[in-house]
TrEMBL record:
Keywords: Lyase. This is Uncharacterized protein. The lineage of its organism: Eukaryota, Metazoa, Ecdysozoa, Arthropoda, Hexapoda. It comes from the Eukaryota. Gene3D superfamilies: 2-enoyl-CoA Hydratase, Chain A, domain 1, Lyase 2-enoyl-coa Hydratase, Chain A, domain 2. Belongs to the enoyl-CoA hydratase/isomerase family. InterPro entries: ClpP/crotonase-like_dom_sf, Enoyl-CoA_hyd/isom_CS, Enoyl-CoA_hydra/iso, Enoyl-CoA_hydra_C. CDD domains: crotonase-like (cd06558). Pfam families: ECH_1.
Amino acid sequence: MKEVNALIREDTRISVVVLHSLVRGIFCAGANLKERFKMSEEEVAKFVRGLRETFIEIEDLPMPTIAAIEGVAVGGGLELALACDIRVAAETARLGLVETGRGLIPGAGGTQRLPRVIHPNIAKELIFTSRIINGKEAKEMGIVNHAVAQNENNNAAFEKALELAREILPNAPIALRCAKQAINEGVQLSIKDGYEVEQKYYEINVPTKDRQEGMLSFIEKRKPKYKGH
């Protein structure tokens, strides 16, 4: 995953990334606890730090990311989904940060991302109880953007994610990246400081050929042809 992150990070032609499992009924089931049990304390700490760093790389990918969750996304699996910008789940998906029930705590960003996605009190309840919820409940709580009825092919979340991706794709890749960076940086600051972040990324986007293409296509009443530069 780290290798893929490095490959796609610099490709300005990529407008959106969808994360979807090819394993039927499982998005990501989290860590292999049998393997973890055989590790020394030092090995565990190193492993979890590396996992967190990998998920931070996903969080920091410059283009929008969508997690398509068909089935189980527990522990590190939900932490992986939380690292994405948008989450789509099948109504029958199973999501939860279950670590406290295994004598652990979420260690790949879960204690930090979930309380920033939903109300901290609700995040605490889910983490303290190790509760597993379905996709519909996750939508009601605001953990996922969309919950969709599962289909016969068991890929309803993926189909919805592709639908969202197709809405994003026509837009300018660099503008999308600048918008994402402005949001991610700005939400951690006061709104006044956030305005300065917005200005910074607006100015980064101004010299791009895509910005000129966007205005020109509007004037000429045609669809823009963005090239990512």
